[in-house]
Design a protein that fits this description.
Blueprint: H1 4-23, H2 30-35, H3 42-65, H4 70-99
Helix pairs in contact: 1-3, 1-4, 3-4
Length: 100
């Protein structure tokens, strides 16, 4: 039961990274084609996964502080940081291109 929190951080981090790479896929933005609309998907989608990666980072740090599994907690923190950096890049890219 103690391993649920760090494993959740790992799973959320992996899902965030995979969805981020799918979002950046070159053939016409696969996710936008999948959901059918381009307008509603940009900002709410990015904010959701940005918040989810922050939540995953908090879970990883929390599990490290509670000593629920050192290696899985560190792995969850690393994946969450990578996902956070990826979604910050996507956010800056989308906002930067929409402003410019």
């Amino acid at each position: 039961m103690k391993k649920i929190i760090p494993i959740t951080a790992i799973i959320i981090g992996i899902v965030n990274i995979l969805v981020g790479y799918i979002y950046l896929a070159p053939p016409g933005k696969f996710l936008k084609k999948l959901f059918g609309s381009e307008k509603w998907l940009d900002y709410p989608f990015i904010y959701f996964f940005l918040t989810l990666s922050i939540f995953s980072l908090i879970l990883g740090i929390w599990s490290l502080k509670l000593k629920l599994g050192r290696t899985s907690a560190i792995f969850g923190i690393i994946l969450s940081i990578l996902a956070l950096l990826l979604w910050l890049f996507i956010w800056l890219w989308v906002v930067g291109w929409s402003i410019a």
